[in-house]
């Protein structure tokens, strides 16, 4: 599939900047609400001051709701675009020979996993064909571990979340790791840039979500834990920041 690199870079920038935008929105709304609640006017009665305070707060919260909806939609659309573009450009060959080769590659990996091997280690050393096979069959294998004893499931989950993204499902970690590996082994620099952006996107989105939640709470309830949002966002920050997409070109 055609990779529209200008769109990829634009959506990557949207995701990278979203944390700062969400934090600014939440903090600005918190300040605006505080101003509204302390508004005073010597020419107004107590009832008039109270009514004006309520009017100002409602106005600020309504305006912020519009901004919040816009930002949330932009982040969601950007993430969906990058994920879809990455999937479309990392599909298995649709010819019989290609499918057979992919199944053979996966069976080799699966034998290692059944013997106690680590999937992430297999991804980190995979060639392009093996990485594509893991991308196709790996998530289902990981999800199947949920029917295994809890200890094994926990080990699988722990082994697949070293990328700094807290929480989420291990299958998503497989896809991120595969994207990162394919970016390293592909000979197509445009595809490599797309895959690096895609593999980093979830980490960026994870740092945005606490601030979006804080802004949403301010809009709906008029209060939010901004310190908690800042801490949660920092905790979600990937331990190793990927290089900007343009550097991969």
TrEMBL record:
This is Uncharacterized protein.
